[in-house]
Amino acid sequence: MRTRKWWISIILTSxxxxxxxxxxxxxxxxxxxxxxxETTAASSSTTGKGGDAIYALATSPDTLDPARSGLAVAIRVxxxxxxxxxxxxxxxxxKPWLATEWEESEDHxxxxxxxxxxxxxxxxxxxNAEAVKFSLDRxxxxxxxxGNSAALIxxxxxxxxxxxxxxxxxxxxxxxxxxxxxxxxxxxxVSPTSVEKYGDQxxxxxxxxxxxxxxxxxxxxxxxxxxxxxxAWAPETVENKGAPYLxxxxxxxxPEEATRVGSLQSGQVTAIETVPPQNVLxxxxxxGFQLLKVNTPGLPYTLFINQNxxxxxxxxxxxxxxxxxxxxxxxxxxxxGTYEQAWSALTPSILGYDASLENVIQPNQAKAAxxxxxLGWEVGTDxxxxxxxxxxxxxxxxxxxxxxxxxxxxxxxxxxxxxxxxQVNVEITQDxxxxxxxxxxxxxxxxxxxxxxxxxxxxxxxxxAPGARATLSNLSSPEVDExxxxxxxxxxxxxxxxxxxxxxxxxxxxxxxxxIYIFPYVVGASDTLKGLKFDYLAYPIFxxxxxx
Length: 548
Hints:
By secondary structure, the protein is an alpha+beta fold. It folds into two domains: 3-256 and 523-547, Periplasmic binding protein-like II (D-Maltodextrin-Binding Protein, domain 2), CATH 3.40.190.10; 298-518, Dipeptide-binding Protein, Domain 3 (Dipeptide-binding Protein, domain 3, Roll). Helices cover 27% and strands 26% of the residues.
């Protein structure tokens, strides 16, 4: 059987990693002893780099268990604690990490990984094929109650341990996205020993092989991690291949925007995430501070229209929302030029994005009113449309706290749609899980996803399987289902882009969603903070960070 093979050659004198394709040849690999010698030389004690950093978060993690987490803010924390089999570079290339090389079968249904030797979890447990199998199989276990990891691991079916440092992963069908998904934090490798020890509480006592070790989590206050002095297996996406320079890294939870900004300016914290738009320009010009910004890829912040609710199951009613909502005005007013408007179900950096969809839908109150007239919704004496004795209302659900001014978006849309005769009832809740995902009690709900592959569209727009949780739009289109299924197994990127382009056009033409904005991850920091970078998904990387 022909295979495609990637391998790693570690050249210690230059401390960099090379990866290439081969028809079967291999190169000599450095021993764990060689690696540890090199990283010892790169430790903070010899470089003069170090310090302690406090990084303020806008919200609190839900859990630090990669398999169970559902929040981007949690990834920002536990990414410091865990490693993955592979890493993805900015140009989309997959490179080694905990795996040193791998083979992909000709039918794309099996991957055989050679694993790095000499790696240990923070609790002393050796990293090996058994740990990889445990971590992946755990996501499939219903008792785990997996979060985003459940979608990312599809179509993983099983694995076979070939020897202590070799494992074969078996897929139920080919998947163009699978190898890249293995680089995502939700599919991190966890310590089997600690999972078995802590059970359901593993998310409060996380143990990985990462550059930092977990110290403590004071709920709704802070999470503290410390330098893993044994770390010697960083991927090539960071410069420092050994232990991180920082002695400690504290993630302080500060939901209030003014408090975060004030804490940075007063020196109480070293850096803050999600700098409010009104403070961006000020921080850029203020001496002693720096501003770092990167757009997040994937699914932009999007308002999903629930087609299980009348009259939004009718195309003209959804189109009326398309024309009645002035997205450009919302983005400019709330974000002051610091956010970009979204135009489709994907961000521009994702394969399949179609720039021709930009600026196609423009606000048009007259057109919106005409569509509602055609559906028989007549304007009542109070300005709200009525039909068969029922007022035209829209139940808009959003979460609390007011993340990225999303509650303000709801308030602006409430005023905009009132002008075309739609009464918007806004419900702000801390229990989105029950109201939206369990009960489906909404007409509009907004969501976004940080992803790097168009396969991310499938769990949002493919018809839900019988008994499975409904998608946010409740779209059910055999045509879209077929495209999404084709895209998942197509390995020709040109053909794949064409497939996903069809999906995006269908979504726009049928008014399935209202795209709002592309989220820029904006970090404000003291100019004493050095070396902060971001990975391909815009998550911060702290391996190279130090305080000067």
